[in-house]
Every structure is written in structure tokens, then in C-alpha cells.
Amino acid sequence: MKNVPNKPQSETGSNASEGDVRAALDRMLSHPEFRASQRRREFLNFVVEEALAGRGSALKGFTIAQAVFGRDEGFDPKTDPVVRLEARRLRQDLDSYYVGPGAADPVRFVIPKGGYAPWFEVRPPVPPPETAPDSPGERTDAPPQAQKRGTGRKTAVIATGVAGFAFLALALLSLSWSADVLVEERAAADYPHVAILPFEALESSPTTRTLSMGLSSELVLKLRGFSNLRLFAPATADDLNSNLPLLDGDPVPSYVVRGTVETEGDHVLVYVQLLFSETDEVVWADAYDADLAPVSLVALRDTISSGIATALGQPYGPLSDDVQLRASQSHPESLESYLCVLQAYTYRRSFEREAFEPVRDCLKAAVARSPDYADAWAMLGWLKLDAARYRFVPPDQVEAEYAGALEAAERAYRLAPDNIHAVKALSAVHHHVGNYAEGERFGRIAIDLNPHDPDTLAQVGWRLSVRGKYEEGGPLMEQAILRTIDPPGWYYHLPSLQNFMQGNFERALVQAEIAASKGTGFGQFLVAINSAVTGDADRAAEALKALSKVPSVAEDPADFMRRHGATEAIISAAMTRYREAHRLALGRDGAEPAIQRDE
């Protein structure tokens, strides 16, 4: 059966005594592995107390915003989604706790979607774990690499104590979950379908078995932060055909994630694969080898599941690439709108002018075909923003494009306030029209929505850095680059500019060269200004020549930087070196480069 809360017998959803509820709340709030922030702990405590006092049905976002988040009478949930976002994160905190140390808790707190009044779910006692390990059995379907590593190896038995048995209780409880759990309902029918199978323990130690179950559950939670997936959690591989109708002729490409876990000594090895379900073709695979300690099982689970979720969900990752590849071979009509979004991300790797109009036209058709598709509206907002900031339209149309960008992004946000594409687009547009505070606010909301999306980290880090907030923006950019399988060139712009401003010119030049090699015009600008510092006339001349072919930057670099929100301090320093690059090139060739603009 599905794990669904009991039908409410009272306002609180059960006949649990007040003493049992308070004991469960105290136990959770004091547990070191309950990872909610202090504000979300206050959120939970407030709604539980209100429910116990008989006021649960009156709980509204406005009440919570004032009591917990310090908002005043002017609070508007349409422009400040703090309660809705924190409620979503609190639900994830509760899910994580109940698939971990709280698996055996006799009273569970459930905050149903669409409301804030908690239910108190009374759970039957969980039977104690078996002391004798089950036989691993004969495996015939494990990945070849995992089979080799699992043969003839000494099994490490880790003393896990109370924490280990709590995880084991989780594993046994999780085995009773229904195979037909649809993890996330989404309106759009044209997302790729992804089934997350329980990770398989290659040997029977309690640590390995419980970590394997915890990994699959945590991976599902983290992938829910990406709006471009439709997730399923079948209990076993045998349940795929009966519980995923997409495998029986659904034209949308579908995928399966499966993995194995084994321990040896003080290390744990997790092997994971992404397979195309129709052919079992391996689309992507990776291995995670990490130190293992009983006290760090939760941290280890979080680290590994975050790495897997980041690789699978990111817009420049293997799943998106494979969907586009298969669509180019056989274009399923139901996937057409989603493909426009993927094509928009491909265009946004280099912002090439010739790719702009086909992508923009595709998105216009997508929103006409699916007017409630928030992803397409968000990406259309980005394309309209590009039309204005890169001057892809005549000067008299620039302001209209900026206005259209804001209108499209706001429509996406109204359709789906929790949609990561919509929030990122709104952040970008506000920034580029000069509403820097709003751009930053929506950027932080985007990170709260999905801290595992490297593109979100890059977007926010870029905008913080270009406003001179290097201490906060720089680390976000570094994380984005590290977590992205193939980072676009523009990811390196602000790290290079930051190093330039801080006097780390050699490092800045390396990052500029990477950006330029990936086809960005502003990367050539960065190469030129850093070559001027190092006195490399040949490299400066080459960069200026390449830059002359990118008029959106070369015709007026200072204006280009202003259109992207750069501070005057950054613009002044960069333009000083830009003029030096021209003088170096002139001295080398005896003739000035084709395009030169002063500030």
C-alpha cells in the first residue's frame, strides 16, 4: 500500500494524545540528524501548537508569515513566497527524517500539500531488525564492474550502534512501500520519465543495506527540485512494466536509474547507472568511493545523492543530451515543447546570433501550443532578454523586448511559483533592467528551491559577482563549474573578471582562455585585457581580432558590461586594460585593430 496519512479523525488527523505528539516533536527537534533550519523548526513547532490548540483549520500563509518569519501587515504571498517555499523544504526535512532516524517514531507529522495544518499520523511499532544477515544471493543483473568488485572480497562489518539499527529499521519499513508510487505529479506530459530503483546492497552488512535504501530515497527527494523530470519510484525492477505505462508505447523517452552499494574496510563504493529503458543502453554511469564512518552515514548519503542528482538534473548533463539526441532521430510530437526548452539551453551555451531566432520561434510556438507550460514561458523570457541586451533587434525595439521579457517571466512565475526556470528567469530579467535587489532576492529563492542545480548557482553567482559581491558570488561560480559536466563558456567570465580585479592575472587569463575556447565573445575581451597586463602583444592582437567578429561586445565593451549590470569600478578597470591591449597590438603590427572603442 502507499504510505498515505490516516484519514483525519479530528482536526489533527488522528487520535494521538497531546503527550505523544509533544514527545514526538521534542524528539525530532532535539535529534542531531533532523536537518531543518532554525526557522523551519519554529515553523513546525508553531503549526503543531496551533493544531493542538484547535486552531489548525485556521492556519494560513499570512498567519505563519507574521508569527514565524517576522512579516508585517503588508505581507503579500504573491510577491513573497517565503511561507510556501519553506513549507516545501520542511516537508522534505520531514521526509528525510522519517526515512532515517525517525523511521520507528510512533507519531509522524504530515503537512499536506495545499495547506499548513499538520496531521498526526499514528504508526504501528516497527519490528526489530533481524540479527542474522540475509544471504546476498546470486546476482545476475548487477553492472559488470560491480560484479567484479563484489567477487571474492572481504565484507567489512561496521559497528553502527543505535544509528545503524535506525537505518536498518528504515530499510525494512521501506520494503513495504508500494511499487506504484508516483513521486511527483506534474502538469506537463512532455517531460522525460525517470524511474528511481532502490539501490542494491552487494553484501549484507547492516551499514550497506541501510545506506542503499537511504540513497534511493534521498535521491528522489533531491531530484524533485528539478522541474524538468517526471519521477517514479517502483519498489523493484520487476515492477517497472506494470507500474510505468510509459514503457508500453508512451512516445516520451523514459529512463531508469539503478545503483549498487558495497563496503570494504573503511570505504564505501556506490556505482550508479542511467539507462534508456527501451534498450537498457547505458546513457551515463559513475562511481563514488568515499570514507565510511558510522557517525557520518547521513552526511555520506547526502553527499553521494547530491552528486547523482546534480549530474542527472542539470540542464547541461547526460539526460538532457540524450533526450535531444534521440529526438533528433525520431521527433515525438508529445516531446516537442520540452525540446524547445532544451534547445534554448543549448543556445545559451554561447548565445550565438544565428541560433537565436530558431529557438525563439520554437518557444513562441510552444507557449501557443501549451499556454500553461511555465518552462517555455520562462525560457521565452530569457530569449526576449537576450534580444534586448545583445541588441539582436533594432534600437527602437530594445525597450519593448525588455518589457516582454519581464512579462513572460512573470507569467511563468504566476503559473508555477515553485518552478526553478521561472524563478531564475525572473531573477535574470530584474537584474538586467536595473532592479538589482529584486534580481538578487529571486536568485536566493532559486537557490532555496534547488541548491543542487549548478545552473542556478552559476546564474546567482554571476549576478552577485558582476555587482562586486565576489565573496558570495565567487564560491557559487566555483561550485557551478565543479558540478557541471561540461560548463558553458560564460561560467568562466566572472571568475576571470574577479581574478582580474583582485590582481590574479595569470589565473584570470587561464579562465578567459577557457571561455574563449568555448566560443564566447566576452571571453576574447577577457583574454585581451589580461594579455595587456602580462604584456603579451601577440595574444592580445589575436584576441582583439577574434573579438572584432562579435559586434555585440566589440562595438562598445563598456556599454556591453553596463547592460549586464557591471559596476563602474569593474568597467573602468577593464576598459583601461582594453585600451592597453589596443596599444600593444598597434605597436606589434604598426596598424590598429579593426574595432576600437573607448569607454
Structure, explained:
It is a single chain. Strand 8 and strand 9 (281-291) form a beta hairpin. This protein has helices at 18-30, 38-52, 61-67, 82-98, 144-149, 161-174, 206-223, 240-243, 297-313, 318-329, 336-347, 353-369, 374-389, 398-415, 420-432, 436-449, 454-466, 470-483, 493-501, 505-517, 521-534, 537-547, 551-554, 557-563, 568-589; strands at 107-110, 119-122, 181-182, 193-196, 200-201, 230-233, 254-264, 267-276, 281-291. Helix 6 crosses helix 7 (206-223) and helix 11 (336-347) packs antiparallel against helix 12. It has 599 residues and is α/β, with parallel strands linked by helices. The strands form two sheets. Strands 3, 4, 5, 6, 7, 8 and 9 form a seven-stranded mixed beta sheet that branches. A two-stranded antiparallel sheet has the order 1-2. It contains 25 helices and nine strands. 53% of the residues lie in helices and 9% in strands.
Q: Beta fraction of the residues? A: 5-15%
**How many DSSP helices?**
25
N- and C-termini, Cα separation: 68 Å
What ranges have pLDDT less than 50 throughout 5 or more consecutive residues? 1-13, 126-189, 241-252, 591-599
Shape: globular
Mean of all residue-level pLDDT scores: 79
Main sheet record: 7 strands, mixed
Question: What share of residues is helical?
Answer: 40-55%
Count of extended strands: 9
Which structural class do you get from the secondary structure elements?
alpha/beta
Radius of gyration: 27 Å
